[in-house]
Amino acid sequence: MSQTKKMSDFKYIIVPNKFDFLKKSNQYQTSSLTKFLLQKKGFNVFLSTDSLPIDLLQNRCLALTAIVSDASGVLIVKNKIALQDCFGTLVYASKFGKSKEKEYKKAYHEAIRKAYATMTDLKFVYKPDREVDEKKEVNHPKELLIVKKEIPLLTPSEATEATPEKALISNQIQKDFVEIETLSAQVKNNGFQLVNTKPEVVFQLLQTNLKEVFILKGSNGVFYKKGTRWIAEYYENSQLIQKEYLVNF
After folding, report:
1. Which of 42, 213, 230, 234 could potentially form a cystine with 124 if both were Cys, beta carbons 3.0 to 4.6 Å apart?
2. Does 128 reside within a domain?
3. Cross-strand bridge partners of residue 191
């Protein structure tokens, strides 16, 4: 009952395109099979490489991540399906499914299906929290666009009469609300991809050994955090370009 109650907090399930015990993406069609089975429970399920809905891009905690673990031995394949929240906390787990098939694809499919068969009490019961949803709507990029239009610009006469302090504040407000674009991060192999609200991919990030510092894939540049902002620095036509963003991870 406690597991079923927790499930009401989640609208989606994301299935990694590659599980840790395998060498290739969707090897033996293990990821696509897991997605198919969980969809039969009524969930909205996506592979980690799929295009994700806007509300999920802005709030990854709406989704559980389905992890298939492996405890196979020499003569038997054993798999279990676990559902984790956005903090990596276990919310639900099946029992182990087992197979003695010698062919890997048949063995993994049988074991995963048997693990799924033990998830009899799992069902889609999402119940959105109205208060939380209202707060999220305030921070929705589309709402920010409305706020941008309501910020008055200084007229020539006002600019002449304004004190340096007022002009500085006005310029800062315009910079903060007009120039800063909000991007959402999607997990990819070795990093993330950042998408805008259209949605379209703006950057692909590759992880480094430094915290909050990424390499911009496909360009001679880096992406790093400075205060509450994220900075993209790269060369374009031999000229150094620097742009600021807000990013929802």
Report:
1. 42
2. no
3. 188, 206
Task: State which residues form the domain around 174.
Answer: 140-179
3-state class (DSSP) for residue 114: helix
28-71 residue pLDDT tens: 999 999 999 999 989 999 999 888 888 888 888 899 999 999 99
Is the pTM above the cut of 0.70? no
User: Do 207 and 173 reside in the same domain of the chain?
Assistant: no
How far is the C-alpha of 17 from the C-alpha of 27, rounded, in Å? 9
How remote is the C-alpha of 145 from its chain's centroid?
A: 23
Q: Which CATH number fits the domain that encloses residue 62? A: 3.40.50
For residue 213, what are the contacts with CB-CB under 8 A and spacing of at least 6? 222, 223, 224, 225
44-72 burial: b if 16+ Cβ within 10 Å, else e: bbbbbbeebeeebbbbbebbbbbbbebeb
Tokens coding 37: 């089975």
Is 87 found in the same domain as 169?
A: no
pLDDT band with cut points at 50, 70 and 90 for residue 166: low
Say whether both 204 and 232 belong to one domain.
yes
User: Tell me, what amino acid is at 214?
Assistant: F
Residue 79 in any domain: the answer is yes
